[in-house]
Design brief:
Mean pLDDT: 94
Shape: globular
Largest sheet: 7 strands, parallel
Distance between the termini: 17 Å
Number of strands: 10
Order of helices and strands: HHEEHHHEHEHEHEHHEHEEHEH
Structural class: alpha/beta
Radius of gyration: 20 Å
Length: 402
């Protein structure tokens, strides 16, 4: 995933605010109501073409489809593309198990008044805590038609603009089914590796089509605040390492240089005071067979962790893609600040191994946006300007060249 040698490239995490015309179809799909499938397909193609054009105009070098093809959010979409799991009401014991059902973490418990006001403003589709996904049979990938549609839409759209490359975000094993009950495989490792093999089909389809893959894994760090305590940090790391190993299993033999891995601590703009420190998981991340790491570096809760990368050996074949613009504030970053952040990371791993990214997606899913779309584009333009300034500083140029 090496940069071009003469400038800093720009990208983002992938999810962008959906246009109203597409949301109208997604609301019908979510509600299980009849809709015109051919009209939806046409709207989706047009929407992807529009959002790719807007990215190019904003100065984004490596573009996405905005995750417009997903009728659910960045993680849950995969549950429509994987067989072997069935939801059912949780037993009283399962309802108390944070690894079986969707429950909130310590941040939610510490700030109940805030979250009581915040959640109604977010248009979130919250999963009920009394439902558990049960693995009742062999795990198989069944999303071939959906992923090929997304590939075709993105390739057609990116062919019409001048960009360096394009990527599709996909989900990691740890985040695909983060909460489940195993009633089929002999143990947890067998289930996770079977899930990894199924997900590999999606990863490989995207890569075989000539696109890049971004593997999203927010649940890997976020689970820490849900299970520690009562579990210890060592127990959490054991839980996380098994999922890192499963992802490596999925990636075996795939072109590492075209794969990047994204973590965040949850895209909601909230306190986040119980996030797992990057220093406690960075060694696990460095085990991954990926070409780059995309992570929160503009978020005020995590920006200081740039120092962590000074204290570890980042393999020479890896690129750092720090978030230099934040999704959690409507304040648009100054390009000089963007440049400062990029130059800081270039001082750690070298200018050829840094790319500009965003902290997380500007929309958590089809119906939940983190900033207004006009601010989304202003931030991406500021990122592009900051990358030009950083390029001038790092290469001694008066302006960036392509």
């Amino acid at each position: 995933m090496a940069n071009k040698p003469n400038r800093i490239l720009t990208t983002h995490v992938g999810s962008l605010v959906r246009p109203p015309k597409l949301i109208a179809f997604l609301q019908e799909i979510e509600g299980g109501r009849p809709y015109d499938e051919s009209a939806h397909a046409a709207c989706l193609r047009e929407s992807v073409a529009d959002v790719v054009r807007q990215q190019a105009e904003a100065g984004v070098d490596i573009v996405s489809d905005g995750e417009f093809g997903k009728t659910d959010n960045w993680a849950w979409y995969i549950q429509q593309r994987i067989s072997g799991f069935s939801p059912r009401p949780a037993t009283p014991e399962e309802a108390q198990d944070p690894l079986a059902t969707m429950s909130m973490g310590r941040d939610f418990a510490a700030f109940p008044e805030f979250y009581a006001e915040y959640f109604p403003t977010q248009n979130l589709r919250v999963r009920p805590a009394n439902v558990v996904n049960v693995c009742t049979g062999p795990i198989r990938y069944i999303g071939q038609a959906q992923v090929q549609r997304d590939i075709a839409n993105l390739k057609a759209a990116s062919a019409k603009v001048s960009v360096e490359d394009a990527f599709l975000p996909v989900v990691a094993p740890a985040s695909a089914f983060p909460f489940y009950k195993n009633e089929y495989y002999k143990d947890e490792e067998s289930l996770l590796f079977a899930l990894a093999e199924a997900l590999r089909e999606e990863y490989k389809a995207v890569l075989d089509a000539g696109l890049r893959v971004q593997i999203d894994d927010a649940f890997l760090p976020w689970t820490y605040e849900r299970i520690v305590p009562p579990m210890t940090l060592a127990q959490y790391r054991k839980w996380a390492e098994l999922r890192i190993d499963a992802l490596n299993h999925a990636l075996e033999g795939l072109p590492q240089e075209r794969i990047r891995y994204h973590i965040c601590w949850g895209s909601w703009n909230a306190p986040h005071i119980y996030d797992v420190p990057l220093k406690d998981i960075v060694d696990l991340l460095l085990k991954l067979r990926v070409g780059g790491y995309q992570f929160e570096a503009a978020n005020v809760r995590h920006e200081h962790e740039w120092k962590v990368w000074q204290d570890v050996k980042v393999p020479e074949d890896r690129v750092l893609i720090p978030g230099v613009i934040s999704h959690v504030t409507n304040v648009v970053e100054h390009p000089e600040l963007v440049a400062d952040r990029l130059v800081r990371y270039a001082g750690i791993v070298g200018r050829e191994r840094v790319m500009a990214g965003s902290d997380c997606g500007f929309a958590q899913g089809p119906f939940t946006r983190r900033v207004h779309p006009t601010i989304q584009w202003a931030k991406l333009r500021a990122q592009a300007e900051g990358a030009k300034i950083a390029t001038a500083r790092l290469w001694g140029q008066t302006s960036a060249t392509s």
